[in-house]
UniProtKB/TrEMBL annotation:
InterPro entries: RNP4 (IPR016432), Rpr2/Snm1/Rpp21 (IPR007175)
Enzyme Commission code(s) on record: 3.1.26.5
Top-level taxon in the UniProt lineage: Archaea
Gene Ontology cellular component terms for the protein in this record: cytoplasm; ribonuclease P complex
Family in the record: Belongs to the eukaryotic/archaeal RNase P protein component 4 family.
Gene: rnp4
Cofactor remark from the record: Binds 1 zinc ion per subunit.
Organism in which the protein naturally occurs: Methanothermobacter tenebrarum
Subunit-structure text: Consists of a catalytic RNA component and at least 4-5 protein subunits.
Keyword Metal-binding attached: yes
Name by which UniProt lists this protein: Ribonuclease P protein component 4
Entry GO MF terms: ribonuclease P activity; zinc ion binding
The keyword Lyase belongs to this UniProt entry's keyword annotation: no
Length: 138
């Protein structure tokens, strides 16, 4: 019979996964072998407690050799045909992810930007010109 895990156990497991990845990121330049070990430990926790690796860290390790990936150091990222290619330079494996979500966000931002701009143009500001100019330049 499976034991029910109290919620605090799950919470701590999640925290540990996050901490391990943070450490992996921090230690990578000095001790890359430690980073790889941290990924291993985080994956072990995630498997044991049946937790997902958070979205933030999901793409920071290779799906083939499970080493920690730091873009620009042991990982090459390229865009091609609507997909992001993560090239692991440790084992040569290429992971591909579609970036529809990012595209959607960008499209939405674009629409919002234009509607906001339209509104701003309709209301002609008379005073506080300096702040208005600053916000428009951003
Ligand atoms: Zn790899």
């Amino acid at each position: 019979m499976p034991r029910r895990r109290p919620p605090w156990v799950i919470r701590i497991a999640r925290e540990r996964i996050d901490i391990l990845f943070q450490l992996a990121d921090k230690e990578f330049l000095k001790h890359p072998e430690r980073s790889h070990r941290y990924v291993e430990l985080a994956r072990r926790i995630s498997k044991k407690y049946n937790l997902r690796i958070p979205r933030k860290w999901k793409r920071r390790f290779c799906k083939s050799c499970y080493r920690f990936l730091k873009p620009g150091y042991n990982c090459r990222i390229r865009l091609s045909k609507g997909k992001i290619h993560y090239h692991c330079l440790e084992c040569g494996r290429i992971m591909r992810f579609p970036y529809i979500r990012e595209k959607k966000i960008r499209r939405r931002n674009k629409i919002e930007y234009h509607t906001l701009k339209k509104r701003a143009d309709e209301k002609i500001p008379i005073s506080n010109n300096s702040t208005d100019r600053e916000s428009r330049n951003q």
